[in-house]
Queue: 3 jobs
Job 1
Amino acid sequence: MPRIFLSFRKSDSRWMRDRVYRALSDRLGANEVFKSGQSIPPGADFAEILRRQAAECELMCVLIGPGWRDARGEDGVRLLDRAHDWVRVEIATALRAGNRVVPVLLGDATMLPDASALPAEIAQLARLQFVRVPETHLPDGLAHFGDELTALLSDAGTDTDADAGTALEPGHGTAPAADPEPSVTMTAHVSGGGSAYQAARDQTIRLA
């Protein structure tokens, strides 16, 4: 089962979407990335596969380009406003399943849609932290994007192992765990105000 589901609109930012897919496939392996055009075999029930993959993926990347929100059909109706729009169905399915959903903004100027511009069942998308893949310096942007997703998948794998009770304990083929390093607290004075920022797992900066 692929761990990453790429949700996208076919008419939106195709060349950047393909670059994202190739970059993730090269880094993680093609079998770890679900993309409908490559991952659904001929003759398969695509509707059943899309729903199942969206419900069971560890992470859904919603690829959003300039034309994602306002794409319309031949009748002039916005695609997102159709209950059977597959982009809408995929996102709603993943959200209901409690999966991690990450908006991925393609290009330098693409903005995350407001909740008011989205159907109610996927309005939560507007409140989720996004990742941007810029068109300028694209190789660096793709590398950073790969780093972000690899970290998210690693965290998910660690949580899964802990929940399942499969984490190795000292004395079972592993060296004893080192004592945790003491917490280090740093205070920074910033003009104009600010908010707390966690620098690392063992280090906290408080703005004063």
Job 2
Amino acid sequence: MAADTLTAGVPDSEAAQTLKTPGTPEALDATGALTAGAARPSRRATRLRLLLTPAAVCAVLAVLYAWVSAQDLDSIERRSLNGPVILAKAVEHLQMTLAATALVVVIAIPLGIVASRSRNRIITPVILTAANLGQAVPCIGLLVLCTFLLGVGFQTALVGLVAYSVLPVLRNTMVGVQQVDPALVEAARGMGMTRGQVLRRVELRLAVPAILAGLRTALVLTVGVATLGAFVAAGGFGELIINGLKLNRMPVTVVGGVLTACIAFLIDWLGALAEDVLRPRGL
């Protein structure tokens, strides 16, 4: 209605030109939708949020450092909260997170593709049930069970983390591939592409935003659950949290918890950047 009012009394060709004229936020296309110029505020808001996250994390770390420095730490707290120990725990935590995420990508994306393209009514429910079990079973219970088979250590923590983080990537891969417009798939097949080429060049590329969103969720989940790796001697910030609780040393527990949260926020921020950079143009 607004477009008709603006172009009343104007010849059809001039009205069409008016509707399609770029460069003004009010410009409308033939369907009445706002042009790219009107989307700029949302992009600015997105960029502002991306800048706020690292700034907020730095502010929290500065406040944490000032608070710990003002505490009268005893010998146990000083041994736990010195620079080399915190750096070592951060490396261990990131190693668990990144290794588990790499395994999740290798496992979940192919399974998601199989589940989305399978015409067998048994395969897809079996895959989804197995992935759901990973989150249905308490992670600490799964770690205890894996300890009987694998012993304690890094590999045991990886099993629990992978089982817990597979579902978001698997589901998002399925949804991303299934939501591709069938007309685009048919057009690609009409151009002579094989089914494998259609999958790689069309379906997976259009499914990238959904897959990245699932991967971003899995990363944040993995950072939090990796604290349980301390129960199987895998290291990480979970050791600070657990030791602080056992020894009744609040500064140690607070530092472990806050640093874990900061890593989660930073990884989520990096995931948002990856989504923005890797998203196919036009989506």
Job 3
Amino acid sequence: MSINVFERSTKRIVTTTTFDDHERQQWAGKAAAFQDSFASLCAYPAGPLLDAAAVGADVRVLDVGTGTGTVAALACARAAKVTAADAEPSMLEIARRRAPDAETRHAILPHLPFPDDYFHAVVANFVLNHVGDPAAAIREMRRVVRRDGRLAVTIWPYPQPAAQQLWGVVFDAAGVQRPTDLPRIAPDKDFARTQGGLAALLDHAGLVDVHCDTITWTHRTHPETWWAGPANGLGTPGMLMRRQDPATIARIRHHYDQHTAPYRDADGQLGLPTAALLASATVN
């Protein structure tokens, strides 16, 4: 099912899906929890993402789905002319503090409230994982980039890397049943979360010079920080955690401590292997 919203200011029809609505509900008011838990995980590809989009001094760049402003702040440090957009107001509040030199705008993909050909570059860090129509999102990002401008995106791959798989292992060990009522991306709108699948998404949007790489790293974090994300309702693990009774939460925590133990170093920090896909292209 989809919901049509008429944007009077631009005379355009914006189509969102039940998946989009679910995502916005999941992230509503969660900016502080995200900043204190998973933001450092998502920050790792920020530099390579901006490099892929050729973002430097005086480049007019749009950071779509800025979250708490990690990429926007880094782009400002490069003396770029930054606009940071997000669908979640609580994210924008933190982004304004982290990147005070950036313009911030509320925007919900697949609609961006900017004119055609306005930016030199657009970047989106782990945004396509959270939209119901990834192809429409890419087309909209392409629309606002001028000819010969750059577009760069990251996503989490599938199969999942070890850091993300860990939660599934923990829930399985605790005997937690997976919900069957979650909205999913329609099969005709989904794409393979692989290098080839992401590259094809950009290619089909009419972009050229498409390139896609896998970035791997070890995410260093404290066990309590990694636990705090789902414990505060973030992402699918958080949604699943929120549905459990206290006894089940205690059982999940027991298995969490067991299964994270092999990743702990002498200082008690976790070292979690993870990966992301980074794709970039030129607007022709």
